[in-house]
Structures are given as structure tokens and as C-alpha cells.
Amino acid sequence: MLNSKRLLAWFIAGMLLTTCQPMIKIPDAYNFTSKEIKGNPYGCWTIVTFNSTQNPLAPDTIAGEFICTDADTLYLLVNDFQVQPIYLKSVVQAELFTHRNQAGTYTKVTSFLLIPNLLGALIYASEYGGGFLALGIPVTVVGGATILIENLSHQNILLYPGKISLDKLELFARFPSGKPANLDFKRLTLKKTSKYLNRKD
């Protein structure tokens, strides 16, 4: 009985630390917090799949900061001083990341709230271990459900076609009002970072 209670305690702790951790396939510098979206001078990180003129049967995929659009072209900054134009009518799919997924924050909060229960279950396992674990069940259920919902809902990702049209995506570009007349693409640089995080789809 003692071993089963300890095993259950460690299981709960491990579940919270590993449950659907948000993993993002964008540069860390573009993994904005929800507060950074307003007034952000940079465009959001965007992954675009489009029909290539060189090989229409095998769509190309390219990722970069969404700079702007004009009448018929979308522009992504893929490297410093390197902007990739994409013909709007060739776009098959676009995936735009507005802000950081909050599941990691919910995981930390839930884990913090469960520390007393886990410690109590481990220290007083022979007498009150089951009681401490039982008290932590509601927190575990609510926290786990919140983490799962956040990951499955993808509220931080705008998809075309799907959630949004291409013209609405422009709101998250560096220049949401369109390409400025005096814009020199060769002077643009990415928000500095070299750190990447991987995301589970």
C-alpha cells in the first residue's frame, strides 16, 4: 500500500511536468507574450505553403517574419536583408503564430499548487498519504484539463484556410497597412535570436 501511494504521487508529478508541453517551431524572439502583441514593431512568425512555379505538383514551404502584402504578393523576411515574395494566389496554406502558447504557464501554476499535496503524501505516506493525494485530485484534474484544452485549441495560431482569410492576416504583419512606398527590403533584419524551440503538432 505504501509503495502504491508513493507511485501514485510520482505519477501525478510526472504527468504535470510532461503533459502536452507547448513546443513551438518558431524563433524564441518571435514567441511573443500576449501583452507584447499590441504595439509590437515586428510582424508575427508565419509559415507559408505555396505552389511553386518550378514544380506545381510539389508545394514549397517557407517560414519567416510577416512583413507586408501589396496588391498580389505576400512578403516574408526569411533572413537578415532577405525577403521572399510569394504570389498571393499561389498560397495553399498559411500558419501564423500570434503569441506564446499558455500551456507552459498553466503547467507551472498547477505544479506549484500541488507541491504541498505531493510533499505530504511522500512524508506521511504510511498514515495520511492517501488523504494528501485525494486533496490534490481536483487541482490535478482542473489543471490537466486546462493544459490539454490550451494545447488542442491552438488559440495562438491563425490558419489559412480555416480560421482566417489572407487579408485578415495582414493585421499581424510588420506593416499591416501594406507595403510602404519607401520600404527597402535589403535593410530589414529579423528580431535577433538564435534559439529555436520545437513544437509537437
Gyration radius over CA: 23 Å
- The helix-strand sequence is HEEEEEHHEH
**Widest sheet: strand ordering:** 4-3-2-1-5-6
- The end-to-end span amounts to 39 Å
Number of strands: 6
- Count of separate DSSP helical elements: 4
Strand content: 15-25%
Structural class call reads alpha+beta
Average of pLDDT: 74
Q: Rough shape? A: elongated
Sequence stretches where pLDDT stays below 50 over 5 or more residues? 1-5, 18-24, 194-201
Helix amount, in percent? 25-40%
Largest sheet: 6 strands, antiparallel
Give the quaternary arrangement of the chains: single chain
Please give a structural write-up.
The chain is of the alpha+beta class and 201 residues long. 33% of the residues lie in helices and 20% in strands. The protein is elongated, with a radius of gyration of 23 Å. The two termini are 39 Å apart. The relative contact order is 0.24. The model is unreliable at 1-5, 18-24 and 194-201 (pLDDT under 50).
List keywords for this structure.
single chain; alpha+beta
List strands and helices in order, with pairings:
Layout (H helix, E strand, L loop, with lengths): L1 H17 L26 E6 L9 E10 L3 E7 L2 E6 L3 E7 L5 H21 L5 H25 L3 E4 L5 H4 L32
Antiparallel strand pairs: 1-2, 1-5, 2-3, 3-4, 5-6
Helix pairs in contact: 1-2, 1-3, 2-3
Short summary:
It contains 4 helices and 6 strands, in the order αβββββααβα.
